[in-house]
Structures are given as C-alpha cells and as structure tokens.
Specification:
The structure is a single chain. The protein has 14 helices and 16 strands. Strand 7, helix 10 and strand 8 form a beta-alpha-beta unit. Helix 10 (254-266) packs across helix 11. 42% of the residues lie in helices and 19% in strands. It has helices spanning 14-36, 40-56, 58-74, 79-85, 89-104, 143-154, 168-184, 201-206, 222-231, 254-266, 282-298, 307-313, 346-356, 369-378; strands at residues 112-117, 123-130, 133-138, 158-162, 192-194, 215-219, 244-248, 275-281, 302-305, 321-323, 337-343, 361-365, 383-386, 405-407, 415-417, 423-430.
Length: 437
C-alpha cells in the first residue's frame, strides 16, 4: 500500500491498514499546509489542468468504469444503483465544466472582512482560511470524486476521499488525473488522496483521527450518515433526512402555488430537496386541495392526508389516496408520495415544520408579505424559501459553483456547503505599535 492510487481489493491485516491510514493522514496534514499557502493562480491552473485531463481520458475512464459496472451487475445491484455508477461522456463533461467554473470563481482564502478601527488604535477583522484536511465518505457516484477534489483545491484544503467499493476502479482512475493535475501546477499530489482499499475498517480509522482530519463529510444513505455521526471523533458536516415542506398560506396565488408545488414534488423525487409534505391553510384548503390533488395524482403521486384533507380531496379517478399516519409527518419518501395536512394558522404550520421537519428546506407560498417574513424568521431550517420550489436548495443553484454536501447542523456550515463552507474565520489584528494600558 505505497501509493494512494494503488488498487487494493484484498483484505489487509489490521496492522497494515492502520499503518496505511496513518501514512495517508500524515501526507494529508503536510499537504494541507502547502495548500493553505498556495497562490490562487496555482490552484486555478490545477483545476484547468484537471478539466483538460478529464476530457482527454475518456477511453481510459470508460475502461475503468466498465469494470465497476460489470461487477455491479454481476453482484445484482439494483438498476438505479448501477446507473449511478456510470461515467457517461456527458457526466465527464459536466464535472470538467465544474472544474472550470470553480477556477473562475473568486478565491475565498485570505479575504479579510469587517475590519474596524478600535479606540486603542488597533484594527480588528476576520480572515477566511482553509479548514485544513477534510475526509469525505460517499457512495456510488464516482463524479463526486472530482467534485470533492475541485472544491478542496480551490478552498486551499487537503482531502482524503473514501468512495464506495462498487466504484473503486472508476475512482482510482479519476484520482490519478487529480494527482497529475496537482503536480502539473506545482502543488502536492497528496492534497487529494483516495483510500485505495475496500476494507470497511478504513472508515473507522478515518473518522477517529482528529490528529490528521479536521472535519468529516459523509454523503450517502441515512444508515451511513448515522454511523459516521455516532462513531466519529472528528466534527461532522451532515444531514440525515430531507423532509422538506411546502406551505400554502391563506392568502395565495393559486396558479403560482400549483406550479411550484408540482415542481417541488415531481420534477425529481430522489434528491433530498424534493417536497415530502404539503401543509395547506384551512382558508385555502377547500378550493386548493381538489385541484392540487388531481394534478398530483395525474403525475402518479400517492396522497396521504389528514382527515380534513381526505374529506376535501374526495374521490379522484385513478388516484392513490390514504390516511396519513403519525410517521408520515416525519417521513422522507424519496418517491412519488406526499403527506398532506390542513392547518388553521401560520403558527400551526411553523410549529408543525419545526417539530416534524428535518431542518433542511421549507417553503411558504403566499401573497402576504408579513407572513412571508415571519416564515423566514421562525422556520428553523438551513434553507427557507418564499414562493419558489424547494428543489432550488442546491449549491449550483445558489451560485456556489458546486457543493460538497448539504448541512442541517447549525455550527460552522449550514445548507449547501461550497467553497466558503470549506473555510473558517480567524481574527486578525493590525497595529502600529499600540500597547494595552
């Protein structure tokens, strides 16, 4: 296990694995100091080199990816999981463009904000600096390797990547391109390392090594994120669920609300920012729900409603309608299922969201400005929206260039985590010989 890009699918001894993970951690820590000091031009050069190499490596990437896809099919992985593994030409082009877009973005590292002169004569402000080393644990999609690497490079961090075993050959091929691009720009190849073993114990080493890693970012299913959160000795940037709400207020533009709701629920059901629960004010419910129910049913959405909802929906030809259980209010379906509840006030809607929601993304559809402002202030979620689809909760849509993940935590980063989310602030003090008296 000499190199971070040498394939290792065989089971290694605990001592070998511990030595390898220590080596990776030490190399990352050393590289992080060099990356923190790297000029913007060098980081941008690495990103542009990576984009160029990705486009040129199409045949080699296709060959490596074919091994993973064939193994996945042989192992009986479900079709959607197999599809996520595929490095199609359009996916390669998308991640290459992503590298170029990140290169074109302002460099957050070294930016000083809030500089104020104090009565003593000193000037006090805050400087944005890299976090240091982040560990990324993710499943299935090999394009995440490039997304994580490109964000690490531009934010001046080092990163240790642990992709899913089902994508090992693809990830190793991509990691080689990253290492070559870094070296081309005069930056340390060890700034981005891919763990080269499928041994699951490697994750345990990574998440219990605060001497090597400053933050862990898990990206995958709920069980993975729960395990990382429970066992990690390193701070974790995470979200467990995406139980997002759309609330239709008493004062609302019905056409707008219907258009937004259909998009929020059905444009794509698998992402964590799709609406899973609909709340409707009682004053709007009698007129809104029959229309919305028919439109949703026409899209194949199963409706699970409270008793008042069921009474107002009435029979809808071909629709799947059933009573909602208590569990439905907390559920992230990731499917064509929507829970619906009629509420008597904005207060009840906010209380329901804060109790049952996952603090990810929630939206109000209203023409009442005061209600919109209350919703923005009082809903305790990472993204809170007015008159638009929850599907916009995304780093690219927010202008971040790309995202490393979404955080529903309150400390450090919240919501889509882009370049700034991979940095921290330190205080800087400028003086001209002042002394404290």
């Amino acid at each position: 296990m000499k190199s971070s890009v040498a394939t290792s699918t065989a089971k290694t001894s605990p001592d070998q694995l511990a030595a390898y993970m220590h080596q990776v951690g030490e190399a990352a820590r050393t590289a992080s100091a060099l990356m923190a000091a790297a000029p913007t031009a060098a980081k941008n050069q690495a990103l542009l080199a990576l984009a160029r190499r990705l486009r040129a490596a199409g045949p080699a990437l296709a060959k490596a990816n074919a091994k993973d896809v064939a193994a996945a099919v042989k192992a009986g992985l479900e079709a959607p999981m197999v599809d996520r593994l595929k490095l199609k030409p359009e996916i390669i082009e998308t991640v290459a463009l992503g590298c170029e877009q990140i290169a074109a973005m302002p460099d957050p590292v070294g930016e000083i904000s809030g500089l104020k002169r104090r009565p003593s004569g000193i000037s006090v402000g805050q400087m944005r600096v890299p976090l240091g080393v982040f560990g990324m644990i993710y499943e299935s999609r090999p394009n995440v390797t490039i997304e994580a690497a490109s964000l690490a490079i531009k934010s001046g961090n080092a990163c240790i990547l642990r992709g899913g075993s089902e994508a090992l050959h693809s990830n190793l091929a991509l990691a080689k391109l990253v290492a070559a691009a870094l070296q081309e720009a005069g930056l340390p190849a060890e700034a981005v390392q891919l763990i080269n073993t499928t041994d699951r114990a490697a994750v345990g080493h990574l998440i219990t090594a605060p001497q090597h890693v400053d933050v862990i970012i898990p990206r995958g299913g709920k069980s993975l994120i729960e395990r990382i959160s429970a066992e990690s000795k390193v701070p974790v940037i995470k979200h467990l669920d995406g139980n997002c709400h759309s609330y239709v207020d008493a004062e609302v533009d019905f056409d707008l609300a219907l258009r937004v709701l259909i998009n929020a629920k059905t444009q794509k059901v698998s992402p964590c920012n799709a609406t899973e629960s609909l709340l409707v004010h009682a004053e709007s419910a009698a007129d809104f729900l029959p229309i919305a129910g028919a439109l949703l049913a026409d899209k194949g959405v199963e409706l699970r409603g409270c008793p008042r909802t069921l009474a107002l929906l009435g029979p809808i030809p071909g629709a799947k309608i059933r009573a909602a259980s208590e569990q439905d209010w907390s559920e992230e379906y990731l499917a064509l299922i929507l829970s619906i509840k009629v509420v008597d006030s904005l207060d009840e809607a906010i209380a329901h969201i804060n109790r049952y929601g996952s603090h990810h993304t929630d939206a109000i559809l209203t023409t009442n400005h005061a209600n919109a402002m209350r919703f923005l202030r009082e809903v305790d979620s990472a993204s809170v929206m007015v008159n638009t689809s929850t599907r916009f909760a995304d780093g690219f849509e927010y202008g971040l260039g790309a995202e490393i993940g979404i955080s529903t935590d309150k400390l450090h980063a919240r919501g889509p985590v882009g370049l700034e989310g991979l940095t921290s602030l330190k205080w800087v003090v400028l003086g001209q010989g002042e002394v404290r008296v």
